[in-house]
Design goal:
Largest sheet: 2 strands, antiparallel
Distance between the termini: 109 Å
Structural class: mainly alpha
Strand order of the largest sheet: 1-2
Order of helices and strands: HHEEHHEEHHHHHHHHHHHHHHHEE
Shape: flat
Length: 473
């Protein structure tokens, strides 16, 4: 840079007095301090000789060069410099030392490249490697001092340890209980396939049946379907038979929690023979070799059911269907039979048990509707009083929720006009029933006020001026 300035001064010699930092004022120019034979230029109202303007340009260039030196190492690494015209040009200048503020800069400091990250982003800790790079399988280096001949044909696989007796019940019980909720046998088969059951494989049917004995009839039906679907993909016929052998031996213990266990196990055996997961000679193999009376009762129950199946009984439906799987018409018929049986017997506890066994808590509003319609169609106060007591008992025990009770009453309110066609006194009986329901705490005041009332004719004697008016319902 000093060489360039010296060359410029040699080509444009100036006097020592013209190297002053201050510009020449107008007064000095008028006083003749500068010879008149020089060309005069005017800049911003000041008269300057050409030599002074050239020196000013040189100072501006030096200032621009000093600013370039203070740039970051990224810009200095590009090798940029200023030409004589003040334009930035690319050159091969040495990179200056980076300032302390750039110590943590990951850019290259060698003055090469375009200022991109080192090694294309593949250098340093915590990086994912160069973008677009594909890693190939690493080959074993035979010259590696840690090389072992057994590594060449070594195959790595995930090993699942077999379940022991302590972890077996803890792992499978949630699976079976969740199956009772969703009823998907394929999901259970997938979960069991991921486990290494080992010698505990034959315990799966026994665990499922033991849990079903303490559950509902619909859960027993689901258990029978589960055993039929698992036999083959997950279990073998010998696994199922060994499991039922153990069930028959442990019947005395099962009766402590489920008194009717012998009859239920006998039904499971008959269903297993029907589904072909147990051999037809399974029951006959126990003849003459049974000492326990509970085991004998279970086998007798299974034999009777199989003989009845030959006469047309469907064993595949012996447990019945769950409430959500039954047709609506069938549910309505069973609820009507339940109400008629209650009116005859007056046993509200039996009615509660039968309503629970239907397993349709979402359909209890239909039970309330049918009960009120039966009151409207009945003669006398006996049915009204008994239905009020039953609804009070079901509401107090939370078998029928407040929402289901409200929906049942509202359905009667909507259909009362049609019911009145067959029962002329329907409006009067309904008002009486609703008032007593409110007094017994079955419904709230808001639901009582929604009860519709029948309109009537207004006669001339009531002061209508000889006109007859009909009030709408």
């Amino acid at each position: 840079m000093a060489t360039d300035c010296a060359a410029w001064l040699k080509a444009n010699p100036v006097e020592a007095e013209d190297l002053s930092d201050s510009f020449v004022s107008g007064d000095e120019d008028n006083g003749g301090a500068v010879t008149s034979n020089k060309n005069i230029n005017e800049i911003n109202g000041n008269w300057l000789p050409p030599s002074i303007s050239s020196i000013q340009e040189a100072r501006l260039k030096a200032k621009a060069k000093r600013r370039l030196r203070k740039n970051s190492s990224r810009d200095s690494g590009r090798g940029d410099s200023l030409s004589d015209n003040g334009d930035s040009v690319r050159g091969n200048s040495a990179a200056p030392t980076s300032p302390k503020s750039k110590l943590l800069d990951r850019k290259s400091r060698l003055g090469k490249g375009r200022g991109l990250p080192k090694k294309g982003g593949a250098g340093g800790k915590g990086v994912w490697g160069r973008s677009g790079e594909v890693y190939e399988p690493e080959e074993v280096d035979e010259k590696d001092p840690n090389y072992d001949d057994a590594q060449k044909n070594c195959v790595y696989e995930t090993v699942v340890p077999p379940l022991d007796e302590r972890d077996f019940e803890k792992t499978l019980t949630p699976i079976v209980q969740e199956y009772f909720e969703h009823g998907d046998t394929n999901e259970v088969a997938e979960l069991l396939a991921e486990l290494n059951l080992g010698p505990m494989r034959s315990e799966v049917p026994m665990l499922a049946v033991s849990l079903a004995l303490e559950a509902k009839a619909s859960h027993r039906e689901l258990t029978s379907r589960l055993l039929a679907d698992l036999c083959g993909p997950v279990l073998t016929r010998s696994d199922v038979e060994n499991s039922f052998h153990k069930l028959l031996r442990e019947l005395p213990d099962l009766m402590l929690d489920t008194p009717g266990a012998p009859q239920l196990v006998g039904q499971f055996i008959a269903r297993g023979v029907s589904d072909q997961i147990l051999s037809k000679s399974y029951i006959e193999s126990y003849k003459g070799r049974v000492d326990c009376e509970h085991t004998r009762a279970a086998l007798d129950r299974a034999a009777v059911l199989l003989k009845m199946s030959m006469g047309g009984l469907r064993i595949d439906n012996q447990w019945g269907m769950g409430g959500g799987q039954r047709p609506v018409i069938q549910l309505i018929k069973e609820m009507n039979l339940l109400l008629k049986e209650y009116i005859l017997s007056g046993d509200d506890s039996e009615a509660e048990r039968c309503l629970r066994e239907l397993e349709v808590p979402h359909f209890h509003h239909e039970f309330v509707y049918e009960a009120i319609v039966m009151v409207l169609e009945s003669k006398g106060d006996k049915t009204l009083k008994m239905v009020l007591l039953l609804l009070k008992s079901l509401s107090a025990s939370s078998i029928i929720t407040a929402d289901q009770m409200r929906r049942g009453y509202e359905r009667v309110y909507v259909d009362i006009s049609e019911i009145n066609i067959d029962v002329p006194r329907a409006y009067f009986i309904l008002e009486q029933f609703v008032d007593k329901s409110f007094m017994m705490g079955i419904i709230d005041e808001k639901l009582r006020d929604l009860c519709p009332s029948r309109g009537r004719k207004r006669f001339v004697s009531e002061g209508d001026g000889g006109r007859v008016k009909l009030e709408s319902y």
